[in-house]
């Protein structure tokens, strides 16, 4: 079974404006809201791809109830731990470019952490655990590593999609997959990475540091894949960018869904990139048929 963990879920409030003037009243021309948070997005995409999964995490208040309700309508199994504060609202602002304003999120206390660990204790060999998104400020930055420590030698494959401070401590636990984007990769090594060529040595380093599979996503410039056998580059399909929110999560879900079907890392990487682009080219998340349509436009090169 696949489990996702979203420690800090959100309602993503998408707003489109013709123009935005600081210090004035600005009127929205188009708006939408969606349940969000990286783990929840992975759950929603997995569900669309026919991969059963259960979403764990902390949710609270009227915003949390909206998330719970929406996921229930989509037949996604959830086992969230209620917290006292309201789940955050993240603003996704589109004027010409996309700007994101992500909230802090509610406080999580010791008892709520204990409850999460108890649920994770139920995982067994063959399960996959996806740890995605930021760790709230009330939890220690090495929280994902603490989860990995608790699950070590249980045969649970762990996937982590998070920024430097949350991700680096997990590497010694040999996560099955990590997916930094180009900027996050640079941040991990104190470098500015501007091209696939510049990213290659650092992607290889992440494998040396413990990751079994690494995808470095680079938006419209495609993605890189690293493991002990392969260093691959995938071009991204061309199309009109409608929404990049969740594109990275679609890469994670696409890789996982395809890998669990065929255990072929190269094929799963290709599917993952098509999934990311299918989401980027649509207002919502990708579906299986949308991914299939783009697959032949994803060209893989062995580096
Ligand atoms: N403009 C684009 N054109 C084509 N494909 C895109 C574009 N933007 C994103 N993608 C696809 O989505 C994948 C992930 O994008 P990106 O690298 O922006 O992830 P991310 O930064 O983790 O995204 P997010 O955090 O917004 O979900 C890319 O590898 C690519 O396949
Ligand atoms: O603040 P975090 O946890 O790093 O990211 C949260 C978030 O930006 O990531 C998702 C897209 O990947 C959105 O649904 C959500 O708003």
UniProtKB/TrEMBL annotation:
The keyword Oxidoreductase does not apply. Pathway: Carbohydrate metabolism; D-tagatose 6-phosphate degradation; D-glyceraldehyde 3-phosphate and glycerone phosphate from D-tagatose 6-phosphate: step 1/2. Keywords: ATP-binding, Kinase, Lactose metabolism, Nucleotide-binding, Transferase. SUPFAM superfamilies: Ribokinase-like (SSF53613). It is an enzyme of class 2 (transferase). It catalyses: D-tagatofuranose 6-phosphate + ATP = D-tagatofuranose 1,6-bisphosphate + ADP + H(+); beta-D-fructose 1-phosphate + ATP = beta-D-fructose 1,6-bisphosphate + ADP + H(+). It comes from the Bacteria. Pfam families: PfkB. The keyword Kinase applies. InterPro entries: 1-PFruKinase, Carboh/pur_kinase_PfkB_CS, PfkB_dom, Ribokinase-like, Tagatose/fructose_Pkinase. GO terms for molecular function: 1-phosphofructokinase activity; ATP binding; tagatose-6-phosphate kinase activity. Its EC number is 2.7.1.144. GO terms for cellular component: cytosol. Residues 6-285 form the Carbohydrate kinase PfkB domain. GO terms for biological process: carbohydrate catabolic process; D-tagatose 6-phosphate catabolic process; lactose metabolic process; small molecule metabolic process. Belongs to the carbohydrate kinase PfkB family. LacC subfamily. Belongs to the carbohydrate kinase pfkB family. Catalyzes the ATP-dependent phosphorylation of fructose-l-phosphate to fructose-l,6-bisphosphate. This is Tagatose-6-phosphate kinase. It comes from Aneurinibacillus danicus. The gene is fruK.
């Amino acid at each position: 079974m696949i489990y996702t963990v979203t420690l800090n879920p959100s309602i993503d409030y998408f707003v489109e404006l013709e123009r935005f003037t600081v210090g004035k009243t600005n009127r929205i021309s188009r708006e939408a809201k969606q349940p969000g948070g990286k783990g929840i997005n992975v759950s929603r995409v997995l569900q669309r791809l026919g991969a059963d999964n259960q979403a764990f995490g902390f949710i609270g208040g009227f915003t949390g109830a909206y998330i719970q309700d929406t996921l229930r309508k989509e037949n996604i199994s959830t086992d969230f731990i209620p917290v006292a504060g309201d789940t955050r609202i993240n603003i996704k602002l589109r004027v010409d470019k996309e700007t994101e304003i992500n909230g802090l999120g509610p406080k999580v206390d010791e008892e709520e952490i204990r409850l999460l660990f108890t649920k994770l204790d139920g995982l067994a060999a063959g399960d996959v655990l996806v740890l995605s998104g930021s760790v709230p400020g009330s939890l220690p930055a090495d929280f994902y590593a603490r989860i990995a420590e608790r699950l070590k030698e249980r045969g649970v494959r762990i996937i982590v999609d998070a920024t430097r401070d949350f991700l680096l401590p997990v590497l010694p636990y040999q996560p099955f997959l990590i997916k930094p984007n180009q900027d996050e990769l640079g941040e991990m090594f104190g470098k500015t990475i501007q091209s696939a060529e510049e990213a290659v040595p650092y992607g290889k380093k992440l494998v040396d540091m413990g990751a079994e599979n690494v995808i470095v996503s680079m938006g419209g410039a495609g993605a890189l894949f690293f493991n002990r056998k392969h260093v691959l580059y995938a071009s991204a399909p061309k199309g009109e960018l409608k929404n990049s929110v969740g594109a990275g999560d679609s890469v994670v879900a696409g890789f996982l869904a395809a890998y669990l079907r065929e255990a072929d890392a190269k094929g799963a990487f290709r599917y993952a990139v098509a999934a990311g682009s299918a989401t980027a080219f649509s207002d919502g998340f990708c579906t299986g048929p949308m991914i299939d349509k783009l697959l032949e436009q994803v060209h893989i090169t062995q580096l």
